[in-house]
Amino acid sequence: ERSKLEIVLNQMSDGVAIVNENGQVLLSNPAAARMFAADLDTQPANPTLIEIVRNHQIVSFWTSITTELQNDSAYLEISIGTRIIQVFGINLSEQQAGKVLMVFHDISDIRQLEQVRKDFVANVSHELRTPMASIKALVETIQESYKDDPTRTEYFLERIGIEIDILTQTIQELLELSRIESGKVPLKITAVAPADLLASAGSRMQPQAERSGITIEVAPYTEIPNVSADAERIEQVLVNLIHNAIK
Description:
Elements: H1 2-11, E1 15-19, E2 25-28, H2 30-35, H3 49-53, H4 56-66, E3 73-80, E4 83-91, E5 100-106, H5 108-146, H6 150-182, E6 190-192, H7 194-211, E7 227-229, H8 231-246
Antiparallel strand pairs: 1-2, 1-5, 3-4, 4-5, 6-7
Helix pairs in contact: 5-6, 6-7, 7-8
């Protein structure tokens, strides 16, 4: 049974430790040592919790758990350097008097992904706000100054159309991202002319390029043979590359 327990503990990615009432670690796994860069070979047979984790927040957390007589679990989230660690503790007094089970879970990657998503939402909000503000300003300009001037009105309507194209492109990219993340993007492989892909992608990004004062010139080598590809997906790749280049 002890051998089975050691196998399970050694394979766990989460750190595990059982601490007695004196703060000595009676049992721990390699993941706990790696998480806190503890060299167990240089430690005594039963090192103290502070010798392994070297963090007073965790020790104070353990102290608070030892005062609880029930098996209710407690939770702590702390930052150690660039990593974020979740610490779970449970008083084992009903099964093992004076002992506390502690589990350490590194959530640094999860928090990083959350931050990426927050940044993404902020960027998308900005991308949507800019053309919306432009459309509103153009409409107000027509209403206030040029409603009786057909030439100027046509010019502003063209600008509104460009801004709407930008909005449509941004929303389309969001929908594409949603489909990709859901895994529901089956590839439709057909024979595709590279020149047509380039021309289509260039045409889609032309309004945004004009808005930024940039000229897109599509001059593909016409003798390139057809390729086997998903035209819609490859065109989206090209559009994303051009979009990034414009920005």
